[in-house]
Every structure is written in structure tokens, then in C-alpha cells.
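Issue 218. Parser rejects a valid record. Input:
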Amino acid sequence: MSARAIGTSTISFGLVSIPVKLYSTGDTARRISFNWIHEECGSRVKQQYSCPTCDVVVPRGDMIKGYEFSKGQYVLFDADEMKALEMPKKDAIDIHEFVPADEVEAVFVDKPYYLGPDKGGARAYRLLSQALSESNRVAIASYATRGKQYLVMIRPNGEGLVLDQLRYADEVRRFDEVPIDEAEVKDAELELARQLIDQAASDGFDATRYTDEVRERALGMIQAKVEGQEIVAAPQEEPATQIIDLMSALKASLEEDEARKPAAKAGKKGSGSSAKKAAEG
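Output the parser choked on:
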């Protein structure tokens, strides 16, 4: 089944305009969601807003938006004032610059969308995709929709294009805000860690190798419940004893990985010898 576009726009840079369609990269139909139900009658409950001061339920028509500028103090905005705050909608995705693809850190990427060519835009669409791919660059642009202005990145993906919604600089925490204690890394520990990485290394990422086990188990339980079966929680296994010593933990991890992948062990005798020496040290 073909994907359904969630919006249309036009990529604009210089005198070139490329009509495009936006598509969601996620499949929300795969998510499992539960509703709150009134246990007594089996009806789905509705959400209501209440005022703690007046102790009454407030209908949506009696509500107004406010910004808390000080603790417990709000400046109020009616519908017209809220509309004045919004960014005017633009149909164009305006490209500002082209930067090296590896210069945009992953922490800036907020949400990705697929871009597809709209009617009459296939040739220019493919041209931009190929040009970006061959130059190893991405386009940084701005895009206004739903009253907000977004910073976006357009990057090649095979023969197509992906639009990544980016965070602005002041929306990203600096990593130096994360406390990291000083610690010494020993050469023997580093050698074992590298060997552990080598043993579990792959040439590329294949998402199809992984499944959401919690989702699969939940679907099975839901079906059982639909069929009238009683759901009983499985007994939880006791957590394994943790090895506090780092060298011991690395050695145990290597032994466990080697036992699980005997074929890989046989094919890496040369690289394993240095790790064995490090472990013995």
C-alpha cells in the first residue's frame, strides 16, 4: 500500500523550486494503545478539565491560554492574540546553506519525514538528491507550518530525500552539563573491551534483525484475553549476581560471547590471542 502524504510544500533554493510531499516515517498503526474504561459499566471515560479554585468542571469554551511569567502568575491571551503570535504559513522550504553531512550532530535531529516529489517535480527532485549525495552535503533550511517555524535538514536517502526536523541551538543541552567523574582506563581493560566490540561487530545496521518483544508478548496476551482466557503474570527471574570488578566483568562477557558464537571464535583466532594475553595479565 502506498504511503499517504501528510502535507505538501516546495523546496526552494536560488531560482529552483521543487514541489514535494511530506510523509511520516513511522507507522503509528503498529503501536499498542489502551483506553481508560469505567470498570463498573465498561464504558470509555472522557477527560475533563476542572478549576481547583472554583471546584467546577470547566468546558473548553470557557478556557483561555496563559503564560506563567512568575510563580502562580499568568498573562492571558485570547484567540486573536494567540493567532498573532503564530508564524504565517509558508508553502516553501527555504534552503539557506549546504553543509558537510557529518557536521550535523545527531542530538540536533528531532523528527524525520520522508520527502517525495509532487506532480511535475520528479526531475528536479532527483537532481537535488544526486547532487547532495555526490557532494556529501546536506541542506539546512527553514519551514513554517501550523503556526511554528522549524529548522530542518534535507539529506539524500538512496535516490530520495529525507527531511529532518532539527532542534534550535538553545533547545539542545550542552554535554558538559552531564557530570562525568575522573577515572583511569587501564590498557588491559581497553584491550578486552576492544575485543568484546570486535566479537559483536557487524558490517551494517539491519533493523529487521530486531523485534519489539514486549509488543509481541502484549499482542499475545490481548488475544488470549479476547478469547476469554485468564492472564497470569509470569514469575520474574532473580537478577544475576553482578560482577563489580571491571576486569572480571570484561572476561566474563568475552567468555559468554565466545560460547554463544563458536563459529565466530574459530574465525578470529588471531585477534583473540592478544585479548587472551591481556586477560591473563
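Fixed in the parser; the record now loads. DSSP finds seven helices and eleven strands in the chain.
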